[in-house]
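Write out the 3D structure for:
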Amino acid sequence: MSSRANTVLLNIDMEILERLDGLVSRFEEVSTLITDAHVIADQKRYVKLTKEYKDLGKLMEVRKEYIGCLQNVEDAKEMLAMEEDAETKAMLREELSASEKRIPELEEEIKLLLVPADPEDGKNVIMEIRGGTGGDEAALFAGDLFRMYSRYIELKGWKMSVSSSSEGAAGGFKEIIFSVTGEGVYGILKYESGVHRVQRVPATETQGRVHTSAATVAVLPEAEEFDVEINEGAIKWDTFRSSGAGGQNVNKVESGVRARYMWHNPFTNEDEEILVECTETRDQPKNKERALARLRTFIYDKEHQKYLDDIASRRKTMVSTGDRSAKIRTYNYPQGRITDHRIGYTIYNLPAFMDGQIQDCIDHLIVAENAERLKESEL
């Protein structure tokens, strides 16, 4: 590479370039390993390597484009020095400008890709929404949040399945638990964990006074079968008749399942009883399978929470701590305003937001967390 290209190279930290060069050989090594029969037989290792291959693949693509841009800058400058045709020179200047603009963008992408991401970002999730302070109004708000997420999930092209729910006396939900499957679901929905507060005049309020209520949202990365070891023989299973919509079969057949499991918490050294119910389908074996997945996820979440706590202890500010007791967002109906307290984000478009148009807020949260990650890594 010529001195011109080397000058451009100075724009990016040489340490990062060295790390990229080292990752090329690792990418080639992993691409060979995932075709090895012994590795494929070890599912836990195979899945881990497949994820690494995918992540490294993104880096290799950006690296290739970056090197291409550097070469384009070098070639365009050399050709401009020799070219005499005005039209060709104008075209070369345009290409040069585009490459020079793209280089710093790629440098930021490379830096970010080199920062270790949350290993759970690619997982599916189990979400729990619970009405908090505010009685019937809190349950109604929990229902509004569920509809908001349902609409957002639909817009993203993801799939959702309700595991269990408990309706409020005046509507909405005291509690609703559902799973979401799709591409990179946890990496996006994790920002929704926390306390959501609503300020509005309840339907039952005759004096027109604004009340404040709250609902808690928990977003749990769904555990893979090999992520958690469970002694299935120690699970106590009960069956019961499901209630709600679905025809006579729902009420006459004991399709609902309840799992009780004594889990030893390695962090507290105490035994805890975990209770999981599932009435998702009319098929008892399917409900049993999904209840087992939720049990696995609950245990895995305990361990993942320790990972989040470790990160939080290292950062002065946190966008996605996973702290479900932290007030993260206020929905002010009289003013039509939504405020995200973690980043000071405010938007006056509440009807659209409640209709699932929450991506802009999530994008701002992702940008803020990426800035934190870059600062933490000191790249």
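Residues 3-114 form one domain.
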